[in-house]
Amino acid sequence: MTAAERRLHTAGPRLAHGPRSPAEFEEFYQVTPPWDIGRPQPAFLALADAGMLRGRVLDLGCGTGEHALLAAGRGLDAAGVDTSAVAIGRAQAKAAERGLTARFLVWDVLDLPALGENFDTVLDCGLFHVLTDEDRAALVLALEAVIPAGGRYFMLCFSDSVPGDLGPRRISQAEIRSSFADGWQVDAIEPATLAVTIDPAGIPAWLASLTRR
To answer: Which of 25, 150, 157, 168 minimizes the number of CB atoms within 10 Å of its CB?
Structure first.
């Protein structure tokens, strides 16, 4: 067992097997979950610094809002959605404390069309890799409803190089490509690191960059 796996076990049995339901995520936000690092993920911060966040930005499964707030801090129209009311409340408090304008909604990411909005940039940190096969397909359809042609989707997920089977599902490049085979251009899938509180080295990840056709 690796050091990261031992930390997952220590963090609790539900975390070790990956949270799935909204109720489980809500329970994790009663404290600070390992993915809530209190700052943007380095991979997404690098995207922002490179000017890749553009137009109207949506942060999927936004948690306590760091990536929507990153976009808002760059002067962009930013929103975040999450099923956890506790996380959304913390995101709204952060926005107020930092004097930033960003909208945060308790929302099912599979029901994005009901928002009635379009977004030029969609960010996903750690959402895709907790979905079932059926929900993954539903998410792609939901994204297609809110991202117009030329819009971008940036996704950070566990890679298939993560050892063991604790935590979220491992995702291969082939799975990403097959999920977005129709109506999307896969611009890049690059090795990255997902920062977490329980391992200073972080978790091996993929940063996928896709454009809606």
So the answer is: 150
Calculate Rg over the CA atoms of the chain: 16
pTM of the model: 0.89
Q: Which residue has the tokens 């042609």?
A: 149
Query: What is the torsion angle, in degrees rounded to the nearest 10, for the CA atoms of residue 153, residue 157, residue 160 and residue 166?
Result: -160
Question: What CA–CA distance (Å, rounded) separates 64 from 84?
Answer: 9
As a whole number of angstroms, the distance between CA 119 and CA 146 comes to 6
Local confidence pLDDT in tens for the 213 residues of the chain: 444 444 444 444 344 444 467 777 778 788 889 999 999 999 999 999 999 999 999 999 999 999 999 999 999 999 999 999 999 999 999 999 999 999 999 999 999 999 999 999 999 999 999 999 999 999 999 999 999 999 999 999 999 999 988 889 999 999 999 999 999 999 999 999 999 999 999 999 999 999 999
CA dihedral 126, 36, 31, 80 (to 10 degrees): -70
Q: List Cα–Cα distances, 131 to 76, 90, 97, in angstroms.
A: 28, 24, 32
Count other Cβ atoms within 10 Å, centred on residue 202: 16
What is the three-class DSSP state of 123? strand
CA distance 137 to 170: 16
Query: DSSP character for 103?
Result: E
Q: Which helix (H) or strand (E) holds 46?
A: helix 42-49
